[in-house]
Every structure is written in C-alpha cells, then in structure tokens.
User: Fold these one by one.
Assistant:
Number 1:
Amino acid sequence: MTTVLRASPRGFVNTPQVAQTAARALRYLQSGFSVHLRGPAGTGKTTLALHLADLLERPMMLIFGDSELKSGDLIGRSAGYTRKKVVDNFIHNVVKVEDELRHNWVDSRLTLACKEGFTLVYDEFNRSRPEVNNVLLSALEEKLLVLPPHNGQKSEYVRVHPNFRAIFTSNPEEYSGVHDTQDALMDRLVTINMPEPDGVTQLEILMQKTGIDRTQGLKIVQLVRDFRERTMALLAANGNGHLQASNLSSRNAVSLLHFSSTLRSCITIAKVCREHAIPVDVANEEFRDIFADVVLSRSNLNLVTARKILAEILATEKEPSQPQPENGKDTAFIPYEEEVLAYIKQSQGVRVSEIQAALNINRVEAIDALRSLIKKGMLMQRDDRLYIAQKQLQASPPTATPDSSS
Ligand SMILES: Nc1ncnc2c1ncn2[C@@H]1O[C@H](COP(=O)(O)OP(=O)(O)OP(=O)(O)O)[C@@H](O)[C@H]1O
Ligand SMILES: [Mg+2]
C-alpha cells in the first residue's frame, strides 16, 4: 500500500544559516526545478528535504535509496492478475465462452507523485544502483514517465503533473555503500552542498531536541568540535597516518576534513546527560565516560591516539564563548590565515606540519586557517599537500615572501 504523507518535521530549527540554505532551495523548486541536497552525514539533509516538502504544501511521497531497490519499486509493477470468464448460453444449443486474463498494474510512489503533482523526497538516492534511477531522467527533463509494456500493450507514457517536484539527498561518493552519481541525472538537478551546521545552528538544534540549557549545550558543542578539529588536524598532517590505509589513503583530504558532522554526537551526549541528570562538566566521571563513548566510536584515528587527544581536551576545557552565526559568508576573522596563504604561495605543495614549523603555530591554528582558505576556494589539497588554487594563481600578482622570522 502506498502512503501519502503530509510532511511536517516536528521542531524544525530555523537559524540564519538554515534559513539561507532553505531559501536557496525553495527558489529553485518554485521555478519548477528539482533540487539535490548533498553533504556529509548529519548535516541536516533529510530534515531540510522534509521541511522544503512542507513549504511546497503538496502531499509528499518518501522513498529511501537502497541497493536492493528496483525500477519497479519506483514506477510500479504488475501485481497478480484478474481472470474474467464469461459463459454465454443464451441460445440453449450455443455455448460461448470468453476467458480473459489481465495483469493488474499497481502504481508506485514515483508514478503516483508524477500523476498527481505530489512532492517526491528521494532520500539517499545514490544508495540505489544508478540504472534504477534512469526512469527519473525523462520525468525530470521531458516531463514524461515511461511505464514498461504490460498486458501485451506497448509502453505507456504518463504526463508529469506541473506541480510535481523532486527533492533528492545524497552522501558524498567516498562513503561506503553509495554509488557514483549519474552525470545525466545530476545535470537535471540543482545541487546544493549542505554546509556543516554552524555553532549557532548546532546549539539551537541541541536545545530544541534535547531540552538542555544554553550553557551546557554550548559546552558540549565546543568540546565535540575541539575533539573533531584536533583529530582532523592530525589526520591531515599525517596523510593517512593511523587510518586503515586501504580505506582512506586514496580519499581526498578535503573530504576527509568534512567527513561527517558533529551534530549527531552533540545530540546524543546532550540527550543522555539531560535524561540522566548528569552535569556537563569535564570533572564529572560519568560525563567523561559518555563523552568518550560517543566521540571515540566516531573517530577515524586509532584508539590510543584518539584517547590521548580526548584526555588533553578534557584537561583543558576552555570557557565557552558564544558562537557567531556564519550565515554562509566567511566574515569571521581566522588567525594566521594571511600568513598561511603567503607561505603556501612561496612554496607550492606543502604539508601541514611544514606550515606549523615555518610559522611556529600549532596544528589547530594551522587547520583552522587551511579550512577557511579551502572554503574560500583559495587553496586546494591533493593527497596530503596543499596548493594554491589555480584561479588564485592566475588572478594574483607574485607575492612578497612572508617574513617567517616572527
Ligand atoms: N534544522 C533542523 N532542525 C531540527 N533538527 C535538525 C535540523 N537539522 C538537523 N536536525 C537534526 O540533526 C540530526 C541529523 O539530521 P539529518 O538526519 O537530517 O541529517 P542528514 O544530513 O540527513 O544525515 P544522514 O546523511 O546521516 O542521513 C537529526 O536528529 C535531525 O533531527
Ligand atoms: Mg538523512
């Protein structure tokens, strides 16, 4: 049976960052395009997709990508058959028998959404095999859905209702269990790269979902971020240092830096602390245990190194400072950004450890600066080395050698 949903994600949190992404996506949907929200795990893709479907005010059909999914699950299939037998004996010495066998066709979610003009949310669509998603190509471009021949008839064409919209979500292709996205499908969608939820968004979601107070929520967000940044800094510096080399050595380090959001870890810690009245305090044994259980399992470092970083973080808890909304613009001042850029400009293809040594800064400071420069498109990363982005090289005149004596 197919269920039509009225999408209305409960407790949706709308911060400036979320509102900006939602407004971008909604603009495309209102102009008749389908959108694709792409990003690492836990960045709020599914939640935003449901929110957008709600804003469109049409009934919603929800499909989850899966490698077992078949095209029949999308468009429909023959389900059993109906047999009709008519025995006509109106004239006593004439018996006429008509025996008809018809396959029953059952529409599936995509077909129904196309016919009725519903909103289709196809969550994690790149977990389905690419060929299964082929049926979407003509539906999105020619606004025709092609149903396979059945009952001995030719293919049937369904005209796509003008209100039909599709919202896709996907995880990066480096994730296990996901397939490469098809160029032809990507070409028919507007893709929005979901940003990592900023500090304000994480905190608001945390408070909304778990009921934790602002001060405690803030501490959790900062501790988890601290841990993430230090482990990522180590990974970036060592290339694939302590990772399972076969899995991660070929991964582009940029994607490594954005491997998954810290939001789910924060929610888990906050929920458990709140429900079991455990104070968010690094001196509290139980809190330390919860924190370790949640963050260590999500770290790609080996356990010994990860534990060491964890101990350092818990020993040097900083005073929480109010996070600033990022609002999609990079206005915040990042220390050492200019120095790092100048250093890389004069020595192409450097490692993070070389930057640290040359500028006498620690790993967190170096990675913060690098992240910000990568985000602004000024740098690119190949293997474990950083280079000035090509367009930057073309645009800027040769720079003065930075003073590395400071
Ligand atoms: N704007 C928001 N308002 C309220 N809760 C949110 C919001 N964004 C994300 N969340 C919460 O954060 C968590 C992660 O969000 P979500 O499941 O949407 O992420 P995702 O990007 O789809 O992750 P995955 O790739 O693993 O499926 C969920 O518990 C969700 O409820
Ligand atoms: Mg999701």
Number 2:
Amino acid sequence: MAGGQVVAGSNPVAPTYILPCFFSESGVFCFWVFRFIACNIYIMKDNEITIGDLKKQVDAFVDERDWKQFHSPKNLAMALSVEVSELMELFQWLDLEQAKEVMKSGKVREDALDEIADIFIYLLAFCNTNKIDISDALMKKMKKNIKKYPADKFNGHF
Ligand SMILES: [Mg+2]
C-alpha cells in the first residue's frame, strides 16, 4: 500500500509468535515470546483502518515504553497544544497565498504531515487515558453545531 498514513510501533493486531525453546537449569519450561516490533510499521489509508485500531496502535506504543505514568490529562493537553503550535509555526510570516502554495508539495507539506500525525497521536492518547470514545464525542458535538449554526442562516458567513 502506498500514499497512506504511516502507523509506527508494534501492532496489537499482528501475530505474536510463541516459541518453546528450552528447559532451564531449574527445570522450568521457558518460552521465548517474539513480537516483531521492528517490522510492525504499516502504511494504511483512512478507509483501511478504524479509529479504534489507531487508538490501539497508540496505546501499545505508549504501553511498551511505560509512558502511561506521564499521560495525565494536563500533560497530554499541553503536548497536544505544543504540536498544534508546531503546525502553526510552519506558516509563520507567510501570507495566505504563500501558505496555500507551500502545502501543495515540498518540505513544508511533509513537515505538516508529521505535525498532523503528532496532533492526532496525542489526541488519541488523550482519549485512551480518559476513556473517551472520540467518534461518539465528535458526532454529539456535530449535532450541537448543526443546531447552533443552521445552514440556511450561516451560509457563507460566521
Ligand atoms: Mg511535532
């Protein structure tokens, strides 16, 4: 698959291989568990993966590094804000047309994709930590937005 989103870290969906290997000196039968962490980098498009799958990817990445201890709502909200600022920094001092131009191709676009991914990762981590179903939250908020901004009254203006 090409041209999609890179999801790094071990894949909780990927098979875990359990290899019975030897009896130790104490006579306890040991198993070596091999998870192909290094190889578990998949490129997937939006219509090929669910938000639930992405949440699992982020959760596994965090868990494997024992980073949940740092994932308070405050820390994650701050980290999210920093990543949004990094996205904004790419357009600092550009006028509106220049900003559109640099997003067509090139380094700024590539950097923006990285920042978008960082933002999404922290957003999903925030949802994981706080047991938030982001799809449910989004649809409930869209329902409020539709009521607050009826299309016939807010067509073409705020
Ligand atoms: Mg970043």
